[in-house]
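Suppose you are handed only these lines of text.
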Amino acid sequence: MPSTEAPIGAQHFVPGDAHELDQLKAAAAHCEGCELYRDATQTVFGRGAAEARVVFVGEQPGDVEDQKGLPFVGPAGRLLRDAVDAAGLDASNVYITNAVKHFRFELRGKRRIHQSPGPAHITACRPWLVSEFALLKPDMIIMLGATAAKALLGPSFRVTKSRGQLMPWPASAQHPDDFPVSETQALATIHPSAVLRADDRDAAFQGLVDDLKIAAAALA
Ligand code: URA
Ligand code: SF4
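From them, the structure of the protein bound to uracil can be written out as follows.
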């Protein structure tokens, strides 16, 4: 199939009557909304308590997540967990998910090299994210990195410029109509993988923690 063909989108697979996250997760396991399901091992859905007040949105599962079927269980996940603790956020109060729910990669020999999802994958997968939000009705949505921020706030959003700023939701969202929660706030920050890659890792980590502290203060 030519890669220029537009994906059909996840909306064909999202159950309209879901009232539990597990129902969404079970349905997402069979999603063929874009071509990424073909080469990846499995769908990696969000995880966390249904009562979670804070939702983290990452980019897409990595190699480890693809194999384990759980989001943020690799190196970036460990760093995120440390940052959540350092910011004083309650880890049991957090739900973690991704903008795109299948791992996109390029094979080089036997190695699977991470490839960022494209705008078509982000758009195709967005109905899952919206369905998670609709059930969770979180108080705070924290977007980790440019992919998540652009998926939810539009392509002109710049994390480097607007990180750590509290925003009302859904006023700032790209598609406010499909997200009926009104008391939610949002904040974008850098992706934990960017901290891992930074020249000055300590400073980058502290920057992430400082942004998360703004969310923690707003929730207190
Ligand atoms: N990076 C992400 O954005 N999501 C994961 O689940 C793991 C790494
Ligand atoms: Fe469906 Fe998203 Fe996977 Fe594409 S990436 S197949 S839209 S779950």
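What can we learn from it? The chain has one domain: 11-219. Residues 201-219 form the longest helix (19 residues).
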